UniProtKB/TrEMBL annotation:
Region (Disordered): 98-133
Domain Prokaryotic-type class I peptide chain release factors: 16-32
GO biological process, one term: rescue of stalled ribosome
Name of the molecule in the record: Ribosome-associated protein
InterPro entries according to UniProt: Pep_chain_release_fac_I (IPR000352), Pep_chain_release_fac_I_sf (IPR045853)
Pfam families: RF-1
Classification of source organism: Bacteria, Pseudomonadati, Bacteroidota, Flavobacteriia, Flavobacteriales
Length: 133
């Protein structure tokens, strides 16, 4: 993954933010929309594109675009920085390959402890019963 190439391929659009804010919010476009076309990217290999399109299938549009929004702050520049950092985090999480789980067995001493504890609990409960006459 070539991050500078990917960042240069990003497309930004400023949009009006939703929510309260008075008269000023109706005039200023501080919310930032980031769109990134995965299939046309030159900053990723084919395997990376395939992995991301499989992992982020719910976030990707039919035209193979990944779209993110950020309207957290009142500054368009801060929103742009935030949305870029979120985008890179999402890409890194999508490309993360988890380590395979190694199967393990419980040790003999742990099995012995568990069985002894079960035996003790069983005795405790059987002692609560009324004695047979």
């Amino acid at each position: 993954m070539n991050i500078p190439v990917i960042i240069s391929e990003l497309k930004f659009k400023a949009v009006r933010s939703s929510g309260a804010g008075g008269q000023h919010v109706n005039k200023v476009s501080s919310k930032v929309e980031l769109s990134f076309n995965i299939s046309d990217s030159k900053g990723m290999t084919d395997e990376e594109k395939l992995r991301i399109s499989q992992k982020l299938v719910s976030r990707i549009t039919k035209s193979d675009d990944l779209i993110l929004y950020c309207g957290d702050t009142r500054s368009q520049h801060k929103n742009k920085e935030l949305v870029i950092s979120r985008f890179l985090d999402i890409l890194k999480a999508g490309l993360h390959i988890p380590k395979p789980r190694k199967r393990s067995r419980p040790s003999k001493s742990s099995i012995k402890k568990r069985l002894e504890n079960k035996k003790r609990q069983g005795l405790k409960k059987s002692n609560r019963k009324k004695p047979l006459l």
